[in-house]
Amino acid sequence: MGRKIRFQLALGLAITLLGVAAQAQSAGEAVYKTKCLNCHGANGLAETAMGKALKVKPATDPAVKKMTEAQMIDAVRNGMGKMQPYKNSLSEAQIKDSTDFFRTFCK
After folding, report:
1. Which CATH number is 27-106 given?
2. Is the Cβ–Cβ distance between 53 and 41 less than 8 Å?
């Protein structure tokens, strides 16, 4: 196989793998941006007008940090406090992905 063909195949494979990785990373982020951003903010600190008005706890709050993944998923699914439930508007995969993305702010 010629050097040029091997290079093109390797380049194609690398681009494909990067695309898959970017898509996997952005699934939860995309849901978060459309459904959660207004209250929880871009970095999970709830510094938005809506977050402040609703007294949303930031991701760095000890009570939020100690929540398990299952508890957070349940909060998204069924609502918590003033947060509306998303069980009828998001799939289970979307709920998990957005929760996983939010949990990156808790560290």
Report:
1. 1.10.760.10
2. no
